[in-house]
Design a protein that fits this description.
two-stranded antiparallel sheet, single chain, alpha/beta, eight-stranded parallel barrel, 268 residues, 11 helices
Length: 268
């Protein structure tokens, strides 16, 4: 069965006491400010991972705001690795934006290697601006890059963005929620990229035209059909449960989502 993980970006509003009124970057800034100090990192990272483990998850995607290549020291990394090990928590990806320069992207690859994360799931300007160097750097560090669809409003636009070649290290990290936002057929999109699908962010949104996330199965994304498609495709990678409410904790919804996904994948 696929590894089912908790996306730590689900806690984008956690450090704002779930009162995120100014959008994503407000939550990103508050999270980085809270987690960056090395003296308090162990206790704060422990609290978060213990909470995730308490929901029943055995794997996690670490959002960069919780461990960013711009400020992560060897001590931050040691703390994060030992905390994950203590909770028997598998790290399946790093998630976020991996920079617009060679220096930034290489630091992200270094962090992924040091943490044992096999996939960078997100975006980088280098995908279109410096692709050959990007691919060679990924190979050097033993990491794969999965492009996460955000602005693309069609399947073809998404495929064109990732481009051809370097299939061993450059592929897709599909976010089903954005398909719902742009009224894209999520099942068709998954099938279209099946041979280069490195990672899945399983997300639902309340309505097309917006990106208000909700409990899996409560919105416009055909979550169960997506899971059936992944099974039929033989997708064996990780599936990240993603839900980032701005005004309440995602915990209860993520527990319910984990149960739903397990039930569908097991066929019970």
């Amino acid at each position: 069965m696929n590894t089912l993980s908790f996306m730590s970006a689900n806690y984008v509003a956690r450090q704002l006491d779930y009162n995120m009124t100014e959008g994503w970057m407000q939550g990103d800034a508050a999270t980085q400010e809270y987690f960056m100090p090395r003296d308090t990192y162990a206790a704060r990272f422990e609290d978060m991972i213990a909470e995730i483990a308490g929901l029943g998850f055995e794997a996690v995607d670490i959002w960069l705001a919780h461990l960013h290549y711009n400020w992560a020291t060897e001590e931050h990394i040691r703390i994060a690795r030992t905390t994950l090990a203590r909770h028997n928590m598998k790290l399946v990806s790093l998630a976020g934006g991996f920079g617009a320069t060679r220096a930034e992207f290489e630091k992200a690859c270094w962090l992924a290697r040091e943490m044992g994360a096999p996939v960078l799931g997100g975006n980088s300007a280098l995908l279109t601006e410096d692709r050959a160097w990007m691919a060679e750097t990924l190979r050097k560090y033993g990491v794969k890059f999965g492009y996460e669809n955000h602005p693309e409003k069609s399947i073809q636009e998404m495929i064109d963005k990732v481009g051809a070649g370097d299939e061993d290290v450059i592929g897709f990290c599909v976010d089903t929620g954005w398909f719902g936002t742009f009224s894209v057929d999520a099942v068709a999109a998954l099938r279209a990229v099946s041979d280069r699908l490195f990672h899945v962010h399983l997300k639902d949104v309340a309505a097309a035209g917006g990106h208000t996330t909700c409990r899996l199965g409560a919105g416009v994304v055909p979550i169960v059909a997506c899971l059936h498609a992944l099974k039929q495709m033989g997708y064996a990678g990780a599936i990240s449960i993603e839900h980032e409410p701005e005004h309440y904790s995602p915990d209860a919804d993520c527990m319910a989502a984990l149960a739903l996904v397990q039930q569908v994948l097991s066929g019970t």
